[in-house]
Design a protein that fits this description.
Order of helices and strands: HHHHHHHHHHHHHHHHHHHHHHH
Number of strands: 0
Helix content: 55-70%
Radius of gyration: 41 Å
Distance between the termini: 91 Å
Low-confidence stretches: 1-5, 51-62, 65-72, 198-204, 472-478
Length: about 625
């Protein structure tokens, strides 16, 4: 091994085994290539000089004593010529062998160093090898070593796949770093002429805007609705900023990631083109030869960039809603640039001749396929983050409900004009959460609205209608079931007892939830609470005894379509009936408008409903 290294070391005077890969590709390799080219040029000049001095070409210079009439013997002249020719041939062979050894050693070192090379170093070395081989052909074309240059300097047969892997790993690391350095908030729209321009110009081709490539400048958040600003103090700085500042949907890392993908793809394309010029034969690739590998590169880079935008946050289990929403918006912004990004790369590949005429249609079909693959990769990450955002919201909602309703008294003995505290805390949390969803697209934003409101409504329905057995101390106080009762998905036991006043107060809460849902501007959001409203309203309807009769099933279904007999039965089993004194004490005021059942009436309705359900 040391003997192989000695050829270049003896030529340059340096130990070629020293130095890191970075130093080798940056300094040592160009120096070695220049030294070998210089050696070949000197050998070519020496060979040219020795050939011009051979006898036969300058016979006039042979000494001739014309005066004496004595001439050298022709045999001596022939022997001298033969000896000179043999010496020249020996020189050329020795020179060629030494030159071949230098090139062979350079190829060995290059292949060993390429294992730890970056994509830029692979591309730079490939371009340098292309120029190196061309220079050798120019300075010393007659050398016998020219026939083996391609073989000696060839990289591994799977070098193109190595380049793809390196590009993918570098893109992931670069994206992680960009996200870590990011402020993790939506960028503010610059107040320049380019961004104040009329949006009507979007109908024609637009020039790229510096720092916002491939249409990123169009991704702006929609203005905040007036209903969302009502919760803020109109004189506060926060209100003024929310009302006046115009922001993009993405954070500052997205333009940098898009530019890095573009630059890395161009670097890989140059690397692949140089390898093709060096005579590297690649495996057949559906999609138009070497261009297919370049398209694979951009697809892989987009896929790992989408992953890196999420993994750049060190503690995913500690994300806030705002951070998770910003990740979704960033990946969506990257996804929106893909058609123009792929189009730009394809134009470049056609311009430099990497797309052959006989493979044009196949290459463009493969480009469409890789574009769909990259788009699907972004969709997968967006879907995962969407689920994470919903999980964060759901866990917070469950925590608020568990804290507020753990020992809540549903037998209240009186009605309230304002919602319960748990209702107000849930609405305040949803208001703040929904305000942070501005960077998301409209469809995803509406979906989270429905998910949150639907989860609250579902939990309240389960608390109201799930089976709960009475406690040992079966008094009038309303408790959540303790014995032989299973908790709901959020960790609360079903309601054990509830009276007419508790149902009336729950009705006030439902009305407040629906009013908030309508204020968000999301169409039909209030319908999430329809089932809960129907169940509460039918239990407060003074016509309930008539509606539960078998002959009135059609009337009941038409008036309360979501109130099934099974759930009505479950609520009746929890209903705390009033005695005569309780009913007389609560007969004044607003309570007269709601149904208040006595215990015997509750028993009668239970038998009536059980008869129909059985």
């Amino acid at each position: 091994k040391n003997e192989v290294r000695s050829y270049l070391s003896s030529l340059t005077g340096d130990d070629v085994s020293l130095g890191t890969d970075r130093i080798f590709f940056a300094k040592s390799m160009p120096h070695l290539c220049a030294s070998v080219v210089g050696f070949s040029a000197v050998e070519a000049a020496l060979e040219l000089g020795s050939i011009s001095d051979e006898p036969g070409e300058n016979l006039d210079s042979v000494p001739n004593d014309s005066k004496g009439g004595d001439k050298k013997d022709s045999t001596d002249i022939h022997a001298q010529s033969t000896a000179t020719t043999s010496s020249s041939s020996s020189f050329r062979e020795a020179s060629s062998r030494y030159e071949r050894s230098l090139i062979n050693e350079l190829g060995i070192i290059l292949r060993s160093r390429a294992i730890g090379a970056t994509l830029a170093e692979l591309a730079r070395s490939s371009g340098l090898m292309t120029a190196f081989r061309s220079a050798l052909k120019v300075v010393h074309p007659s050398s016998a070593a020219r026939r083996s240059d391609k073989e000696l300097l060839a990289m591994d047969v799977d070098i193109i796949m190595t380049g793809l892997k390196v590009a993918q790993e570098e893109q992931l690391k670069a994206t992680n770093k960009m996200v870590c350095d990011d402020r993790k908030e939506a960028m503010q729209v610059p107040r320049t002429h380019n961004f104040r321009a009329n949006h009507d110009s979007a109908t024609r081709d637009e020039a790229e805007i510096i720092n916002f490539p491939l249409g990123l400048h169009k991704l702006k958040q929609k203005p905040i609705a007036e209903s969302s600003l009502d919760a803020l103090d109109r004189g506060s700085l926060q209100y003024m900023q929310a009302a006046q500042e115009e922001r993009f949907t993405f954070s500052s890392s997205v333009p940098a990631v898009v530019r890095s993908i573009h630059a890395r793809t161009i670097t890989f394309a140059f690397f692949a083109m140089c390898q093709e010029e060096l005579g590297q034969v690649f495996a057949f690739k559906k999609g138009g030869g070497i261009a297919g590998y370049v398209l694979d590169c951009i697809e892989n880079c987009v896929a790992v960039a989408a992953v890196g935008m999420k993994e750049g946050y060190q503690h995913l289990d500690e994300l806030t809603v705002e951070q998770a929403v910003q990740i979704i918006a960033n990946i969506s912004a990257l996804q929106s640039t893909l058609p123009r990004l792929f189009g730009t790369i394809m134009r470049g590949l056609c311009h430099v001749g990497m797309v052959h005429g006989d493979q044009l249609e196949e290459t463009f079909q493969y480009a469409d396929s890789t574009l769909r693959g990259a788009d699907k990769s972004c969709d997968q990450e967006i879907g995962a983050m969407y689920s994470l955002v919903y999980e964060i919201c759901r866990n917070k909602i469950d925590m608020l409900m568990n804290f507020s309703l753990e020992n809540f008294q549903w037998v209240s003995k009186s009605t309230r004009d304002i919602p319960n505290a748990y209702c107000e805390s849930l609405i305040e949390y949803m208001r703040n959460t929904f305000r942070s969803l501005a960077p998301m697209d409209e469809g995803s934003r509406a979906g989270l609205h429905f998910s949150c409101c639907g989860h609250i409504a579902e939990r309240l329905v389960k608390l109201l209608t799930d089976k709960a057995r009475p406690t040992k101390d079966d008094g009038d106080s309303s408790q959540h079931g303790v014995i032989n009762s299973s908790k709901d998905d959020g960790g609360l036991l079903p309601i054990n007892k509830i009276d007419a006043f508790g149902l009336k107060n729950l009705s006030v809460d439902v009305t407040e939830f629906m009013s908030f849902a309508d204020s968000t501007g999301v169409p039909q959001l209030g319908e999430c609470f329809n089932e809960l409203k129907c169940l509460v309203d039918i239990m407060l309807d003074r016509d309930l005894p008539m509606l539960l009769l078998p002959d009135n099933e059609a009337v009941r279904t038409r008036k309360y379509p979501f109130a099934t007999l099974d759930k009505v039965l479950s609520i009746l089993e929890k209903y705390s009936g009033m005695g005569l004194s309780d009913k007389l004490m609560g007969s004044s005021g607003k309570s007269t408008s709601i149904l208040m059942l006595e215990k015997k009436e509750v028993s009668h309705l239970l038998r009536l409903v059980k008869m129909q359900t059985n």
